Amino acid sequence: MKKSVYSLVLMDDVIKAVDQQAYRLGTSRSNLINQILAEHLSCVTPEMRMREIFEQVAELMSSSFRIQEQRSPSLMTVRTALEYKYRPTISYKVELERAPAEYLGTLRVSIRTQSSTLIDMFHSFFAYRAKLENAYLSRLGIDGYSCEIGDGSFSRKLLNTGELSGEQAGAAIGGYINDLDRAVKTYFAAPESFGENAPVLEKNYRTLLEHYII
User: Fold this and answer.
1) Quick one: residue 32, left, alpha or beta (phi over 0 = left, psi -120 to 50 = alpha)?
2) Residue 80: what are its φ and ψ, rounded to 5°?
3) Is the domain of 78 the same as that of 10?
4) 14-65, pLDDT tens digit by residue?
5) Is residue 72 located within the same domain as residue 35?
6) Statement to judge: residues 185 and 156 lie in one domain
7) Cα gap 55→58, rounded to integer Å
8) 115 and 143 housed in the same domain
């Protein structure tokens, strides 16, 4: 959304109140004034769209997820624990683009553990998952799949494959995280028999792609 510079004459008390609220929200004076005017005049700002997306994501999260409070309107983090010894935590962090073009944003997944065994398992699962996702998206003629596997982390770009409303984008992201988390937990519950469960998980992913592709 294009922005321009304008001069406004405002009361000192108004500016003081705006600055205090902007500080509480972790944003700038200009951005807060822009949001207030946009809401009053029924204009949709990037912040409003991101809020709509994250509200929909939160609505789709099951009780096993814990939503972390974020100061930035473009970030959302949800966490859950694996049913594994010491119950390691998995974090899913979504960072949205203010002006989505090829991608809606980025999803980063990380595991909180000092165990090299668990980190190796994490890497093995996401190597499998990345290969699966890339194969299915390629069959649909989508070549923009981009991911990275690091030290106990996985990140991928969320594809912007259509004119999705904020609610639809939130449903797509929430559905994807739920599907991914289900697959992660299935793998960690019994890695030695994961091959038996893989066909069902692949079917779930195919079903997901029938609704939204991200």
Assistant:
1) alpha
2) -150, 160
3) no
4) 888 888 888 887 788 887 887 777 676 566 688 888 999 999 999 999 888 9
5) no
6) yes
7) 5
8) yes
